[in-house]
């Protein structure tokens, strides 16, 4: 009888640098962990590698100058630009903003409020609720200063408008800020626009282009190599992170060969069919800070075919309460096992799904991995998961 369900292990690796053979490092680290910790590989285990070390090993970097060059080429040396809905993040956006400011002389910055799309606040919401403004308002920079200018983010102690203003001015560019939740407000100032939103990027771009704007999304900047830089042809600058004061690490590209190669090597060494994925930010929200973690364009950009789709499972509590309200103990457990077996035999997965929330496997597993590896100094850029696909009938 199996008394343990899903087990998640953070796997330590050497510090990974540019041009390292990541496939070899991941496999070797797993085999060493297997020997030291005494576990055995099983079919449908999952190996996940954080996107950060994939991008590092690929050498997928660009510079602030590369960003400025690409923008100048795409907008034909613009005298002014507008940006809409940037996220409020020193790690995620400050170098991108530096590159944008370096490409032009005047920059109109339109921020959403009361927070950016991933939950980073820009004002005191209690003051906002008591003010004459609502979510449909346009708040000028002076109005913001008068009503909310003393607000500091509770986690960072920084007012991001002040921070972004100083950054833009340091590039000899003149900034102007407005707060508005309708993207078309920027058209009152300029028709040359970069839409910086992540998960609503296509809708925002189409909305602006329908009204005559020349609009380029962050996903279209650094989508090709500039001066022999790195690039990401699908996501551009989305998913990038600050590396140095003048350099960004881009979201991984060409990762399918890596996950398929690791899967093949582990099959050769263990005889087991092990799934492999690359993961970035998890898809979850901090209930206190109200920050939605997913600042990457997707949770998992590359994964093996066995991770396609959504879970096919029943909600034990729902079945227990509704189908077997009078059963308890072993009798209830065996009845639920029978329901699970019926569900597993139904190839369409249409048996009992009430009470479950359909989410993609890669989003669920990637979120688990992100929580396991963290973003600091744990030194476990590889996560090894066993029993994720087990259910009560596997004991």
Task: Itemize the secondary structure elements and their pairings.
Blueprint lengths: L6 E5 L10 H16 L8 E5 H8 L2 E3 H12 L4 E5 L5 H13 L3 E6 L13 H5 L8 E3 H8 L11 H10 L4 E7 L11 E4 L5 H9 L4 E4 L23 E4 L2 E3 L6 H15 L4 E5 L22 E2 L12 H7 L6 H17 L15 H13 L8 E5 L9
Parallel strand pairs: 2-12, 4-5, 4-8, 5-7, 8-9
Antiparallel strand pairs: 1-14, 2-14, 3-11, 6-7, 10-11, 12-13
How would you describe what is shown here?
This protein has 395 residues and is α/β, with parallel strands linked by helices. It folds into two domains: 7-59 and 253-290 and 297-311 and 358-394, 60s Ribosomal Protein L30, Chain: A; 61-244, 3-Layer(aba) Sandwich (Rossmann fold), CATH 3.40.50. Helices cover 34% and strands 15% of the residues. It has helices at residues 22-37, 51-58, 64-75, 90-102, 125-129, 141-148, 160-169, 201-209, 256-270, 316-322, 329-345, 361-373; strands at residues 7-11, 46-50, 61-63, 80-84, 106-111, 138-140, 174-180, 192-195, 214-217, 241-244, 247-249, 275-279, 302-303, 382-386. The strands form three sheets. It has a six-stranded mixed beta sheet, sandwiched between helices. The chain has a five-stranded mixed beta sheet with strand order 1-14-2-12-13. The radius of gyration is 24 Å and the shape is globular. Mean pLDDT is 89; it is low at 347-355.
């Amino acid at each position: 009888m199996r008394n343990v369900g899903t087990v998640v292990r953070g796997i330590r690796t050497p510090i990974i640098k540019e041009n390292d053979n990541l496939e070899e490092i991941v496999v070797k680290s797993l085999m060493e962990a297997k020997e030291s910790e005494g576990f055995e590989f099983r079919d449908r285990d999952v190996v996940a590698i954080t996107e950060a070390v994939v991008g590092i090993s690929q050498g997928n970097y660009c510079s602030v100058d590369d960003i400025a060059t690409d923008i100048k080429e795409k907008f034909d040396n613009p005298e002014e630009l507008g940006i809409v809905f940037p996220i409020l993040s020193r790690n995620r956006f400050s170098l991108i903003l530096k590159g944008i400011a370096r490409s032009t002389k005047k920059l109109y910055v339109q921020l959403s409020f009361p927070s950016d799309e991933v939950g980073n606040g820009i004002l005191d919401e209690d003051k906002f609720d008591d003010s004459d403004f609502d979510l449909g308002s346009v708040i000028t920079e002076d109005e913001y200063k008068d009503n909310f200018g003393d607000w500091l983010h509770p986690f960072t102690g920084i007012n991001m408008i002040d921070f972004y203003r100083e950054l833009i001015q340091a590039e000899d560019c003149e900034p102007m800020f407005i707060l508005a939740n309708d993207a078309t407000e920027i058209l009152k100032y300029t028709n040359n626009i970069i839409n910086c939103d992540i998960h609503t990027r296509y809708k925002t771009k189409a909305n602006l282009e329908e009204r005559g704007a020349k609009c380029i999304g962050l996903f279209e900047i650094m989508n090709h190599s500039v001066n022999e830089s790195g690039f990401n042809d699908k996501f551009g600058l989305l998913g990038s992170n600050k590396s140095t004061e003048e350099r960004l690490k881009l979201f991984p590209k060409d990762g399918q060969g890596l996950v398929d190669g690791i899967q093949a090597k582990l099959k050769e060494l263990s005889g087991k069919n092990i799934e492999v994925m690359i993961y970035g930010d998890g898809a979850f929200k901090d209930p206190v800070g109200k920050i939605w973690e997913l600042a990457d364009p997707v949770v998992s950009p590359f994964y093996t075919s066995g991770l396609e789709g959504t879970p096919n499972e029943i909600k034990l509590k729902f079945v227990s309460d509704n189908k077997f309200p009078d059963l308890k103990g072993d009798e209830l457990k065996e009845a639920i096992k029978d329901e699970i077996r019926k569900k597993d035999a139904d190839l369409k997965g249409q048996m009992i799904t009430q009470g479950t929330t359909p989410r993609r496997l890669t989003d669920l597993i990637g979120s688990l991995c992100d929580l396991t590896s963290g973003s600091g100094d744990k030194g476990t850029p590889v996560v090894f998961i066993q029993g994720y696909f087990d259910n009560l009938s596997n004991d």
